[in-house]
Structure prediction request, 222 residues.
Amino acid sequence: MKGVLFDLDGIVTDTATYHFTAWSQLVKDEFGLKLPKSIEERTKGVSREDSLKIILEELNLSVDEEQFQDLANKKNKCYIESLEKLTDKDILPGIKELINDLKQKGVKIALASASHNGPFILKKIGLFNSFDTIVDPGKVTKGKPNPEIFEVASAQLGLTPKDCVGVEDSIAGIEAINSAGSCSVGVGDETLSQAFKRVESTKELTVTLLQEAWNNFVKEKI
Ligand code: B16
Ligand code: MG
Prediction:
């Protein structure tokens, strides 16, 4: 294992819930509607625009291009406001230790997040300088579950996907890691059954666990 490709929302910080809160607020303010809880899972790892498409379809709403952009901007404004209070206390359990241990062992780390707010969040929680590279989602043409973001992340580390482990909390993200040809580690419930290795909490993510997962992954490939 030469590299670890981290998802951000739901892996490094608990901002996955903040996204859902911001979308819920938008839908309430703009349409007076309540967003079903199922949307939270369906929009995890999915870009802002694609998330909005899913939401509008779910609520049987249609808007023109200008309104669409306006809604996306309003959601982002609300989301950014909720990020203001982020500190290093919002790093999910075990992640800081994991990152330190990986660095000590010479394993490189990349951020492979669909979020345009990734660098801002990493700065707020004090982890910006810990990452060897951050993928710019604006340069990725196809979002998760397409493997592109994980392929780009490993390339930016100077590695091939096979030498990397990808860590994700979303179904779309696990699919993307698998298609990229990296070893996928999922954090969450059994909906992540496609992950090569799955744990319930970020607390369980250690270098030993990731290394063992990768060892087994390589053995299966031979
Ligand atoms: P933004 P990840 C994803 O981040 C979130 O899971 C998803 O809910 C969000 O819509 C997407 O980022 C875009 O975020 O609106 O901040 O650009 O899980 O890939 O780290
Ligand atoms: Mg995520």
User: Anything to note?
Assistant: The mean pLDDT is 97. The chain has two domains: 3-14+87-221, 16-83.
